[in-house]
Each structure stands twice: as C-alpha cells, then as structure tokens.
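If your schedule permits, I should be very grateful for your opinion on a structural question. I have a record of one protein: its chain in single-letter code and its fold written as discrete structure tokens. Would you kindly read the sequence against the tokens and tell me how you understand this chain to fold? Thank you for your consideration; the sequence and its tokens are set out here.


***
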Amino acid sequence: MFLALREMRHSKARYSLIMVIMLLVSFLVLFVTGLARGLAYANISAVENMPANYFVVQGDADHAFRRSQLSDAELIAARSVVGEDKATPLAVQTSTVTSDNGDAKADITFFAVDMNGMLAPKVVQGTGISNEAGGSAVVDSQLVQSGITLGSTIVDQASGMSWKVSGIVDDSSYSHTPVVYINNLDWQEMKQGARQEKADSQSVPYNVVALSASSAQADEITAKLDNVEVITQKQAISSVPGYSAEQNSLMMMIVFLFVIAGVVLAVFFYVITIQKTSQFGILKAMGTKMSYLAWSVVGQVMILSVASLAISLLLTFGMNKGLPDSMPFQLESSTIILTSVLFIGMSLLGSLISVASVAKVDALEAIGRAGA
C-alpha cells in the first residue's frame, strides 16, 4: 500500500482525473438506481404496503387485478381456510375525478375495501371512514398537489358519484396513479349504477381476495376452488400495469452502467500499467514480490473507488434534497449497500487486467527497455 499511496501523491493530476471519471460514473449509477426504485415505489406502493402476502385472482386473469372477477363464493371459501379476519375482498377501478370547484382533475384508482379489515387505509390526516355510511373517501397525498384537500368533494366522471375527502394517506399509488379508498357500500352502488340495474349487494363482484396466509393454506385454497389462482405479493406487484416493462428497461441501464464503470476503470489502469512497465521490471529485479505489486495496483483501485463512491453518495443525497416532490426518487439503505458493493466489485474486477499485465512483465526485458 505504501507504493500505491506514494505513486498517487506523486501523480496527483493523473489520479485526480481518474477519480473524477469514477465519481461521475458512480453518481450516475446511484442516481439511476434511486430513480428506478422511486418509479417502482410510485407504481406499486399501494400493493407493496398491504399487509397481505397472497392474493386470490381469477385463473385466466394473468395475475392482473383489474382482469379478475370474484364473487362472494370465493371469499367465503378463502375465509373458511385462513379465518374471517385474514381474508378480505379488494375491488379495483381506474377512473378520473374532478374537485367540487372544477379546478382539479386527476386520474386515480379506486380501491374498495372493508374499512374494518386488514386493508383499511392508515390515515395520516383527517379521519377514516366506516362501512355503514357512504359518500366519504380517503385519498392519497398526491392528490393534494392537484388541489384536492381535506373537506374537498371529488366527483367520479364515469359514474357521477361524489365523495367528501375525510382522510389522507401517504405512499398509496397504483400504476402511477393515486389511490382513492372507498367502502364496499359505495362500490356496490357505483357498479350497479354502471350496469343500470338494481341488483342485490352480493351480485357485484370483487377483483381479488387479499390473504394473510401460509403457503400451505394458499395451496389448500387453490385446490378447493376451480378457475382461481393464489399468487404471491411479488407476483401481484409484477403484474401491475407497466411495472415490469419499466423496471426491466431501467435495470438494463443500470447493468450497462456497472459494466461501463468496470471497463473505463480497467482501460485507464491498463494504460497506466503499460506506461510503468519499466518501473515494475526494476522492482521485480530488486526482488519485490508479485503479491506486493498486485496489492499496490488493487489498492489504488480500492482507494479511488471508495473515495469517489463516498463523494457521489454525498452528491446524491444533496441532489435528492433539492428534487421536487413530484419526482420519484428513493434510495434505501439496502439499495445503497448493494449498489456500493457492486460498484466496488466491478472496479476491482477491472483492475485484474492490470494485475495480469504486471505479472507478465519480464524483469530483464524491462530493464533493457529502460536502458535503451
């Protein structure tokens, strides 16, 4: 390590340039990773934050909530296996709502849930709603940016029904739209109005049944019911419209950035190593062990990687503070650790090319070249 540090102090400009390039690449990796995670969370936070680990969906719905339709028969069967309080219906409907003053219009997703069940929204402002009285809703905080606040009245453009906003929740989005929670009473009325018929409440289907169950109970429900499928929360998230395509594209960008980081660093250090062939030959002729020379090259890469990564983390956090609330960006501790380890790993992997080049240096040939 002494040789590595001494050389870096001697050639400050050269190694500063390499560090700046690594800093920019690592910052781009962290920023795109945070953006990918932020977009993912803005897409599926309503499902991800549910206390359910399984969902019962129609067998031919391709795991998509909105394509599935279930009746009370499936709900009763699921509850007979997992218990009354561990199976609850969920109805999903996308729509557009306007505010009572007509100034705000927003695309939203209705979630009709049992307000006494495990999917009941956790209100951070205002109050929740009950199952017995209709006309009230709990909305995601994103709608506040559209001018919809506590006490506002929102009107569904499709059905013409209206609700007074009684509560606000955080982090509840579905397919990049804020979620509006209503009770099952309003859901029945909405669907009956759309059908223009007066059916009883049990005739209006739900989309899915959310479960808090074990894998054995999930298998039992699948065997008990025909034309249904019990999927995991991860499968449900992957089936949210646009989620997989969006994340696959961003993940490909992140992978390429890691590869580019490794290649750029490998090329820079390989060129520097070639320029120092004579010096390495002289050190070998003096009896310096190959392990010491290899550790010198790897040590330089490690120092530059860690230093540039630390600065890029500070820049990323500082930039995150200045980003508008409308821009989805999220970096969790686990994501930071994984990204940092991968970045340093790719850098060290690229340095192995330089180590291999040093190992091939012939001391006599290098000394002869230096003397010439």
Notes: Residues 12-48 form the longest helix (37 residues). Confidence is low (pLDDT under 50) at residues 194-202.
